[in-house]
Each structure stands twice: as structure tokens, then as C-alpha cells.
């Protein structure tokens, strides 16, 4: 389970909408302190390229990001991205995840994040111990705090 402040969720949707411009997918990363398991207190809009059907995070950027986060005592808890229509975890989403550790979360937001800020219509997957992705209920896993 992860806890995220409503304001961080709102900023996530703002990034996704602004960058995606209702034409292409966008991605943000949810990060939190290593010392507070399950807490998300930062949204990161990584350097990436995107189209209407996918995105790719810049490789050199990822290396810099991991060093930066380690220096601040933080880690990435989840990746969050949009789809042009309904939310689901595609085979591309399965294979191009930022983190391959069991328990890592991948949240997909439908309709380029044009809907209300929240989890309605979203699809959440968690990486299992066997490396496969499993669908889980976002409302039972993500707690939105005021």
C-alpha cells in the first residue's frame, strides 16, 4: 500500500495533461523517502519522448535520477502514465518498466488524464516475485490523503 497527498496526485495529473496535450502518452514517477515505506511525497516528470501509443524515458536521465534520489535518501515507488483510451497494462508497459523489483507499482490513467483527478477508471499493476505483473485494485492499494 502507498499513501499519497492529494496535492501530489493533483500535480501528477497536471504534468500528464500538460505534457501529453491530449495527443500523446506521458509519464510521471512517484517517489518517497527510503525511511518511510509506502509514502509518496514527490512527483517527478522525467525526461522522455512520447507518441499517442507509448513513451520512452531517456536512459542517461535515469542514471542521473537514481544518483540524485540516492543522495536525497529517496526512491521511486511507482510509475504513472496515460493511455489514449481505457486504462490497462500493455505488453509494452510490462517490458519497459523503470523498476523490476517485486512490489513495484505501475498505474495507468485513461484518456490522457483528462478526467477528474483521482483513481476512477485507472488500472494498477504490481510486479510479483516471479517478475510477472498482476492487476490489483487501485483503491485498496493507493490511499489519497488530504
Task: Describe, in plain words, how this protein is organized in 3D.
With 146 residues, this protein is of the alpha/beta class. It has a single domain (2-145), classed as Cytidine Deaminase, domain 2 (3-Layer(aba) Sandwich). The chain contains four helices and eleven strands; from the N terminus they run βαβββββαβαβββαβ. It has helices spanning 6-20, 59-72, 91-95, 138-141; strands at residues 2-5, 27-33, 39-40, 42-44, 48-51, 54-57, 74-82, 105-109, 123-127, 133-136, 142-145. The protein has a six-stranded mixed beta sheet. It starts with a strand and ends with a strand. 26% of the residues are buried.
Key words describing this protein structure:
146 residues; alpha/beta; 6-stranded mixed beta sheet; 3-stranded parallel beta sheet; 4 helices
CATH architecture: 3-Layer(aba) Sandwich
The radius of gyration is: 14 Å
Low-confidence stretches: none
Distance N to C terminus: 17 Å
Number of strands: 11
For the record, the count of structural domains works out to 1
Fraction of residues in β-strands: 25-35%
Element order: H for helix, E for strand: EHEEEEEHEHEEEHE
Q: Tell me about the largest β-sheet.
A: 6 strands, mixed
Structural class computed from helices and strand pairing = alpha/beta
Shape: globular
Which fold name corresponds to the CATH topology? Cytidine Deaminase, domain 2
Strand order of the largest sheet: 4-2-7-8-9-10
CATH evolutionary superfamily: Cytidine Deaminase, domain 2
| CATH class category name | Alpha Beta
Count of DSSP-assigned helices: 4
Amino acid at each position: 500500500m502507498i499513501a499519497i497527498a492529494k496535492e501530489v496526485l493533483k500535480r501528477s495529473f497536471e504534468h500528464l495533461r500538460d505534457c501529453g496535450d491530449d495527443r500523446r502518452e506521458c509519464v510521471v514517477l512517484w517517489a518517497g523517502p527510503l525511511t518511510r515505506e509506502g509514502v509518496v511525497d514527490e512527483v517527478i516528470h522525467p525526461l522522455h519522448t512520447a507518441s499517442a501509443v507509448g513513451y520512452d524515458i531517456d536512459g542517461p536521465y535515469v542514471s542521473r535520477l537514481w544518483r540524485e534520489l540516492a543522495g536525497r535518501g529517496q526512491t521511486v515507488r511507482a510509475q504513472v502514465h496515460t493511455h489514449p483510451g481505457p486504462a490497462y497494462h500493455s505488453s509494452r508497459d510490462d517490458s519497459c518498466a523503470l523498476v523490476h523489483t517485486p512490489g513495484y507499482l505501475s498505474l495507468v490513467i485513461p484518456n490522457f488524464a483528462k478526467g477528474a483527478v483521482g483513481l476512477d477508471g485507472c488500472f494498477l499493476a504490481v510486479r510479483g516475485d516471479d517478475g510477472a505483473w498482476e492487476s490489483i485494485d487501485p483503491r485498496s492499494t493507493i490511499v489519497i490523503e488530504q
